[in-house]
Write a structure and sequence with these properties.
It contains 5 helices and 4 strands. The protein is mainly alpha-helical.
């Protein structure tokens, strides 16, 4: 029977092997004899030899730093994917969706008409000029309503999000 050397660990953290003492080998020999039902009259024999087994090269390799361990690399890749998706979502919101919503769905805030300026009826303008201005405002309102209906038909989620935003502003 062959028994492996004992594994040791030095004060510097290095692994090594050490041969078993004669007393330990004798204890192992007696234990095996009892286990197998050793009988000298039958001609049984038992030899216990202490020899180093081939070592596992992965156990002798130094431990990798934390940033090179496969589990940590995989976790960093996953976290990087989530961060990239978050950055992309923020970019889309601030650079694309938010300006579009402001431009197309929020009511236009026109400057008050200045008296005497072209296109704006003055106080002394006749009822015909005021009627024309009212007609232009009505047409603009119809155009805006038609455009909002088209957007709602194309992408109802945007309209729902806008309505929710308006409701939150009114409640807050």
């Amino acid at each position: 029977m062959v028994v492996n050397y004992r594994g040791t660990l030095s004060a510097q953290g290095k692994r090594g092997t050490q041969a078993l003492s004669a007393t330990e080998l004798e204890q192992i020999k007696n234990l095996v004899k009892e286990t197998m039902g050793f009988s000298a009259e039958r001609g049984d024999s038992l030899n216990v030899v202490n020899s180093p087994f081939a070592s596992d090269p992965t156990n002798d390799a130094p431990e990798l730093p934390w940033w090179r361990q496969p589990e940590n690399i995989e976790m960093a890749k996953t976290l990087g994917n989530y961060l990239l998706l978050g950055a992309l979502a923020l970019f889309l919101w601030f650079a694309v969706l938010r300006p579009l919503l402001r431009k197309h769905l929020l009511p236009a805030q026109a400057a008050p008409p200045v008296p005497g300026k072209e296109g704006a009826p003055s106080e002394d303008a006749g009822p015909e000029a005021q009627a024309q201005e009212q007609e232009r405002q009505d047409q603009r309102h119809l155009d805006n309503t038609k455009y909002a209906q088209e957007i709602a038909a194309k992408d109802p989620q945007v309209v729902a999000m806008l309505m929710k935003h308006w409701m939150d502003e009114n409640n807050g």
